């Protein structure tokens, strides 16, 4: 009953979600009294691999090949599937990130595996059967998925589990990829353009989001100031990005990014079902809206009825004062 976790990095630095999925997979491995193996693909330094090792993997397989320097869905899926077969893996864990969403169904198809994506809790394991809680219908419901297949693939949402160090003796093994099949490289990434150096929205623990209630892009400083004070990422509703007030990369919801931060501030957002679809698995939701009847209050953990232009600067000042 071997457990393998695939870890993602950006230009050689493991993402926050990489540490989270290692902790998630480690919990499964501990339950099964099995060692944990991690798989990293691309150009990563030994120091960075050793840092990852502090989180409980007893073996880190590192595949480095120039064709695999950037994420390429079919190429990565082939390497991971090959490793799953070679290592006799039964539980395969990865992050439910953009790349994870691309990889997980490919892996399930290649390995004839059962797949649970949008995973939001640790699984219950009973013999060779695993049951796990996931979100369903764009976050409107939870589903409990039971997997019976010999290989089980779990794509875990960001912020599902706190990563924690778990010192283990880690062997770092450089692995040659099995024969590279050119059929896996029909589409290649030519250039990666970083659009922001701020906290990445899908991974952020705190998100401050603005809607049409902000009246225009010139008022976004109140959202950005609060986000900066909290060390949060900035998001927005769809009409805001459609109007060009904010970039589409900040649009959350059914047709935008799905997020599950620990804390979500919705400022001047009505709470339409399509917006909630992308944010309802946030752990704590704070709503600021001047309309007490705004639908968002029905799902809020904390609701503040009032004018965002008065309240948000006061909140920012209070956060700054608390930090000092
Ligand atoms: P509004 O609905 O206009 O709400 C503005 C809110 O601001 C109001 O509640 C108002 O009371 C409040 N307000 C006004 N002034 C102030 C003030 N001074 N202080 C405090 N509060 C104030 N939407 C998404 O967000 N994401 C999606 O992915 C998405 N996908 C969609 C897909 C489809 C197929 C469709 C049909 C719609 C989709 N929508 C999506 C749009 C969605 O239905 C709503 O129209 C949208 O979420 C509303 O955005 P909003 O809350 O910013 O604006």
From TrEMBL:
UniProt key word Cell membrane: no
SMART domains noted in UniProt: ETF
Taxonomically, the superkingdom here is Bacteria
Q: What residues does the Electron transfer flavoprotein alpha/beta-subunit N-terminal domain cover?
A: 3-189
Recorded hits in InterPro entries, A to Z, give: DHS-like_NAD/FAD-binding_dom, ETF_a/b_N, ETF_a/FixB, ETF_asu_C, Rossmann-like_a/b/a_fold
Q: Which PANTHER family match?
A: ELECTRON TRANSFER FLAVOPROTEIN ALPHA (PTHR43153), ELECTRON TRANSFER FLAVOPROTEIN SUBUNIT ALPHA, MITOCHONDRIAL (PTHR43153:SF1)
Q: What is this protein called?
A: Electron transfer flavoprotein subunit alpha/FixB family protein
Q: Which organism is it from?
A: Olivibacter ginsenosidimutans
* Lineage per the UniProt record: Bacteria, Pseudomonadati, Bacteroidota, Sphingobacteriia, Sphingobacteriales
